[in-house]
Specification:
Number of strands: 5
CATH topology: TATA-Binding Protein
Order of helices and strands: EHEHEHEEHH
Largest sheet: 5 strands, antiparallel
CATH architecture: 2-Layer Sandwich
Number of domains: 1
Number of helices: 5
Low-confidence stretches: none
């Protein structure tokens, strides 16, 4: 694991992992903002095969509100993006840990608590969706 991301190996097949993530995020009050099949886009635009890779964007209005009331320009860092991908026939899920990444560049101490809370919520969702 890199210090800016949180990555877990899934015990499920690719599309099962995708479904479990959607369910877990929705159950925690997040809504799906986008669902992009990156491998399909690469195949169509670059004319090259690419392992299965989907990017999902999730947003929870309560978190978005707390960030945006501090600085409306923080929207450029939203929503929470999650990558689901295959690597050597194994499936992984990965996301940016807001507490360790870009958010520290903003330098707003008022956001530290919500950064931590959001990161912990996403970790819980990962664990729940993977059956841990």
């Amino acid at each position: 694991m890199k210090n800016y991301s949180y990555t877990k190996k899934s015990p499920f097949w690719f599309f099962e992992t995708l479904d479990e993530l959607r369910i877990s995020f929705t159950n925690k009050g997040f809504w799906v903002v986008f669902n992009v099949d990156i491998s399909e886009k690469i195949k169509n635009k670059v004319d090259s095969s690419f392992p299965k890779y989907v990017s999902l964007g999730f947003c929870k209005p309560e978190f978005a509100y707390e960030y945006l009331k501090q600085d409306i320009n923080l929207w450029v860092f939203m929503p929470c993006s999650v990558a689901i991908y295959e690597d050597n026939w194994e499936v992984f899920i990965s996301t940016l840990l807001v507490e360790n990444a870009i958010w520290k560049l903003v330098g707003n101490e008022k956001l530290e608590k919500i950064n931590y809370e959001l990161s912990e919520t996403i970790k819980e969702i990962f664990e729940e969706s993977l059956g841990n």
